[in-house]
Amino acid sequence: MATQIKPQFECSDEEWQVRQDLAALYRIFDHLGWGESIYNHISVAVPGEKDVFLINPFGLLYDEVTASNLVKIDVEGNNVGQSQYMVNKAGFTQHAHFHRELGDRANAICHVHTTATMAVCSHKDGLLPISFYACNFQGQIGYHDFEGVTVRAEEGERLVENLGRKSILMLRNHGPVVMDKTIPGMFVKMWALQRACEIQIATLSQGEPNVVQQDVIDTHQRDLAVMASQGGAGVLDFEAWKRRVSKIDDSWKS
Question: Structural domains in the chain?
């Protein structure tokens, strides 16, 4: 649990907890090298409020995000909080559709432009089953063809359609969108996807990969599901990384 520093404005205890966790996640992404200047986004639904979510202030680097400066907006793009910052239109358009259409299964969403994930999104075969981590995601990834920067509301409908019942959407020639019911679940999914993409790039540089067969993938995913039930997916990972970034700079809590 994040330290309960008193917020600088009025909000519920539940919202403040989510604000602290989301701010911590921005610092974790920055520490792991997953930032992209002032661009890209992580958003989280506000507990107890319909179609309202928190997202990063446009113009700040990830290591400048704090619990109190996160922007609270609704799915129509209205600033319904007290932040004076604006929101990047591309981030709003993409995240708003997922939050509005997918409900709890997309409580927490990230979109990144890491070199490894963008490279795999730009490969004609996408993510291949050639590593432990890549086998986690076989049959669980949707693909969406590149249409340019995501600022048109009508593209949101195709994003949701191409995602289907999956939880990761690889935007071809662009980058992935990763979502989950919880912040820890989304984080650990993004961490494993990043590793899968890094390993794929390294493996393909050596020539022909050794592809894992479907029966082994099925067994692997079955056993992973059992392990994930121990304490909740990503909870221990997320708390560990919160401790790491707090040792460096704990200003995210305020």
Answer: 13-249 (3.40.225.10)
